[in-house]
Structures are given as structure tokens and as C-alpha cells.
Specification:
The chain has 169 residues and is of the alpha+beta class. Helix content is 40%, strand content 25%. It folds into two domains: 2-82, no CATH class; 85-163, Alpha-Beta Plaits (2-Layer Sandwich). It contains five helices and eight strands, in the order ββαββααβαββαβ. The strands form two sheets. Strands 1, 2, 3 and 4 form a four-stranded antiparallel sheet that branches. A four-stranded antiparallel sheet has the order 6-7-5-8, covered by helices on one side. A hairpin with a 2-residue loop joins strand 1 (2-10) and strand 2. It is elongated, with a radius of gyration of 18 Å. 24% of the residues are buried.
Length: 169
């Protein structure tokens, strides 16, 4: 089996960054999760990378080649989209309300308070507990400063996990 960390480009060709001869799918234990993150982060420092979900294991080289071939256009488009960009995460407070109306109003206020960050981002993904932002690398310092000015809890920069679709082999 082959563990796939991510997909990128090497000398203009789509490349899967892998670990060969894996005997079992890894368990989501802290050491394995940190290893996955370290590898993907180091790949991001070399160029655009599409991080694969932790634990993505393919049967053999043929399956890896098939993934790269059958999804070639989609993969190249995604790489172009994340090239020169990083992901930041902002954890928003969960609205506390006594009614549905109050809850929706609080949620709207939270979105409004995050609007200044969205102005610096290429894209955003609002998730249940946080919001992810895809930011041009050259704007990362400005993004960090704006989050600080807004007194928001920021994580990142990260590889663009939230902006690469469902890449899981």
C-alpha cells in the first residue's frame, strides 16, 4: 500500500507525494497526525500542494497513476487556485441565544465582525466552529495584523486543506 500526503507539481508534471510500502492504514494518533502535517507543510513551502486527508492509502502505483491521470484537469485547476496562497483559520464564538431569532441574529453579527478579514481573502469557508480563509501569501502579514486588531483567535498559515475539495483518493 501507498500512503499519499498530497499532490503537487515537479518539473511541470503532476506528482503524488507518497510513502511506499505501508502495511496498514495509520491510526489517527498524535504522532502520526503530526507527521502528516509536517510533511504536507514542508511540501507547501516548496510550491502549491493539495493536501490529502490524513490516512489516504492507495493499493499500488497503478492506483496513484490513475488518480493523477483521471483527475488531471481538476488537480491542475486546484493547484492553480492555491498557488501562492495559504489558509488561515478563525474560531468564532458560538452564538448563545434563548430563541431561534436571537441565535440567527448573533450568527449574522459574527459574520459581520469577520467581514474585514474576508476583504483580504480570496475565498472563505464557513464551517460549524470556525471560518477558513484562503489568503495570498504576500497578504499573510496584513491578514494576521487585521485579526489581531479585531482581537480574533487566528491559526495558520496552513496548507490549503479547506480549499482543495474532497481529495481522498
Amino acid at each position: 500500500m501507498i500512503y499519499v500526503y498530497g499532490i503537487g507539481e515537479h518539473d511541470g508534471r503532476l506528482t503524488a507525494y507518497v510513502k511506499r510500502d505501508v502495511s496498514v492504514m495509520p491510526e489517527p494518533e498524535p504522532a502520526a497526525l503530526l507527521d502528516h502535517d509536517r510533511v504536507v507543510y514542508s511540501l507547501m513551502e516548496r510550491g502549491p500542494v493539495l493536501p490529502m486527508r490524513f490516512g489516504t492509502v492507495l493499493d499500488d502505483e497503478n492506483e496513484v497513476r490513475s488518480l493523477l491521470l483521471t483527475r488531471r484537469k481538476e488537480l491542475r485547476d486546484m493547484l492553480a487556485r492555491v498557488r501562492g496562497r495559504v489558509e488561515f483559520g478563525v474560531r468564532g464564538e458560538q452564538p448563545k441565544a434563548t430563541s431561534g431569532r436571537d441565535y440567527l441574529h448573533a450568527k449574522l453579527e459574527t459574520r459581520r465582525s469577520l467581514a474585514p478579514l474576508a476583504e483580504l481573502a480570496v475565498d472563505t469557508r464557513v464551517r460549524r466552529k470556525d471560518t477558513a480563509y484562503l489568503v495570498d501569501s504576500h497578504l499573510a502579514a496584513a491578514f494576521r495584523q487585521r485579526a489581531r486588531n479585531l482581537k480574533l483567535s487566528l491559526s495558520g498559515p496552513w496548507p490549503p486543506y479547506s480549499f482543495t475539495g474532497a481529495l481522498d483518493g
